[in-house]
Amino acid sequence: MKHITTFCLVLILLSGLISCSSTSSVLIKDGTIVGKNVRFNTLLKWKISTTDLSSHTVQEQEMSIYVNDKTATFLMDKQAFGNSGEMIDFVIADSTGNYIVAHKDEKGNKRKYILKSGELPGNTQDQDVVIKNFNLLANPSGRKEVYPQLGNLINVTGTEYYVTHPETEVIRTVTLVHTNYCLKPVMRFNSLGLDARLPFDFDYGEIIPCNNLITKESKNFKNTVTQIKLESVMPVNHKININEYKS
Predict the structure, then answer these.
(1) Of 102, 92, 116, which Cα lies nearest the Cα of 27?
(2) Which among 50, 101, 104, 157 is most buried, taking Cβ atoms within 10 Å?
(3) Which domain holds residue 94?
């Protein structure tokens, strides 16, 4: 088991360069933010519950994230990261690993800057490595779930897997459905080092192949059961004007 885990870790380090096979929107060019109005047509809403098996207490919260499912651009705002990151208004993530952080400075002025999380070169070899990692660490449970509608996706089937975390060897159940955008920018959010943090940590996200949406997950770790469930995928017409924030 130790040799397998070591091998998997090497593969995951290699897969840090992940690919997202979606049409890219141009928000940043030559290191400069060139986008102005960024539109989002879908709102993803998850419900998160944490149960302490010792005290039998349950905490519940929601996490909502906007996405443009044509450009694979995501918007994380207070609906996503809640009260964390008090000075951060929102973060926009594109499909190439760029994050635009919009915040207020100590004088209350609206500012923005760019963060980069790895490279997303988008070649087949990188996808092959991620898929190889996934096949090593994820085993189908045999259970499937049909979703009548997830946004513009009709009668899609979710497949449940037992996924082993490469470092802790914690096993969780994860249900995935195929979609036309890559969730990697969301999965990497908590690794950016921002004060703003999502209430759910996708710490195994690098082994999930692109174009998969997580609809359910459950894990039992240190006497705590954490569950996440995709409650809804709603069509919206939401726009953010990033020109209100100065670089």
Answers:
(1) 92
(2) 101
(3) 2-244
Average pLDDT per 10 consecutive residues for the chain, totaling 247 residues: 37 35 56 79 95 90 94 94 92 90 94 79 62 89 90 85 79 91 90 92 84 91 90 93 91
Measure the CA–CA gap between 98 and 103, rounded to whole angstroms: 16
Of residues 218, 49, 231, the one with CA closest to residue 143: 218
Q: How many domains does the chain have?
A: 1
Tokens linked to 231: 């409650």
| φ and ψ at residue 57, rounded to 5 degrees | -100, 150
Q: Report the alpha-carbon distance of residue 26 to residue 46 in Å, rounded.
A: 28
Angle between helix 2-14 and 124-137 (nearest 10): 150
Q: What's the CA gap between 211 and 182, in Å, rounded?
A: 5
Beta strands 57-68; 73-76: pairing state:
antiparallel
